[in-house]
Amino acid sequence: MSKNIIGFMLVDTPYSALNNAGSDAGERTENTIAVKSIRKGKDIYPYISAQALRYWWRETLKSKYQWEMSPVERQNKIAFTQANPFKYPDDDVFGYMRAQAKSDGGTVTRLSPLKNSPLISVVPNNLVNDFGVMSRQEKGDPVLHEHQFYSTVMHGIFSLDLNSVGIFLENYKTGQRHLNEKLIEKHKTSNEESKATKKDNAYFLPKDVRAKRATETVSVLPFISGGAKSALHLTDVTPKLLVMTILNSGNHIFMNLAKEENGKPTFNIKALEQVLTDYADYLATDVYIARREGFMDDIDGHLAALSAKKFGEKSVIYNSEGSFNKTVDAFVKIIPNHIPE
After folding, report:
1. Fewer CB atoms inside 10 A, N or C side of the chain?
2. Is the Cβ–Cβ distance between 250 and 2 less than 8 Å?
């Protein structure tokens, strides 16, 4: 049975331009930078691409936990990593594809165990065009420029497949040929302390290594940083609300936990209670909810009431009077118990 860490997050972006789409040719100045956004009818929803979020996630793992990142090579118009999940934890957790000639071992691909959606605004937004001018030069006309920004709350989901982290297949099926003969031989003759063990057609890293990679991937969430226009907007992109559990299923049951209410973004308590009731038999762990004080304080009582209920044999763990980070740490501590043998 598959075991997946599933999570939902809300990110507060009160005056932000975190992910830009480049120049907007339709604007009044030649150097106008537009934010990424999508339309639903007449409504505009700014968003942060899944790729941007993954980049922040990867860079924070590198800085906080000193992950040795897989070097990137370029050939003509393509780029790829080393595709060595034995050595590089980002190749393991974030996946890869590397097309190679048969003489070099052949093509290898790995579907990312870590999956995430874009972060998208909960409510439609009127984008603001901020007008600026560069006039510090002594001679010549000032240079005009504009950029867009917004004020909203964004929501997104993620999952981490615990049956994939640190486990590498050598099937010849598309997406499941994680390794080739040359890579396997290189690992066998390396001086790496954490040697993989072969079981059937898969190689397993030691359980403690797999647990370390999985726990660090999740525990870094309260420290994620990044985003465009930080000099002008300085947005804290760490989640302000997190819902996490481990599910004995590949479904993501937390997709619809954000909603608009009277034009404002809010958290859908009833939707959460419903999916926890419907999927109670699939919960492998309690459900952990962490909320920053000062963000959506009005839902505090509702979440506290939810934590008094049972969903099958599981409960909701909520930091009503505790620390956001300690709630995340408490969830992270149970992850090693769910790493497959």
Report:
1. C
2. yes
Burial of 268 (0-12, 13-18, 19+ CB in 10 A): middle
Let me know: does 233 contact 16? Beta carbons within 8 Å: yes
- Kindly state the tokens that stand for 140: 């010549």
Structure tokens at 186: 């290189």
φ, ψ dihedrals at 286, nearest 5°: -65, 165
Domain locations in the chain?
A: 4-338
pTM score, whole prediction: 0.92
Tell me the H-state helices in the chain.
Answer: 50-65, 89-94, 181-188, 207-219, 269-278, 300-306, 324-334
Q: Residues 56, 237: contact at Cβ < 8 Å?
A: yes
C-alpha dihedral, 51 to 52 to 56 to 62, nearest 10°: 40
In whole angstroms, give the CA distance from residue 183 to residue 171.
Answer: 14
- Taking only the tens of pLDDT, the chain with its 341 residues reads 789 999 999 999 998 888 887 655 445 445 678 889 999 999 999 999 999 999 999 999 999 999 999 999 888 778 889 999 999 999 999 999 998 888 888 899 999 999 999 999 999 998 888 777 666 666 766 667 688 889 999 999 999 999 999 999 987 776 678 999 899 998 988 887 778 999 988 999 999 999 999 999 999 999 999 987 777 778 899 999 999 999 999 899 999 999 999 999 999 999 999 999 999 999 999 999 999 999 999 999 999 999 999 999 999 999 877 899 999 999 999 999 999 99
In DSSP terms, 11 is beta-bridged to 154
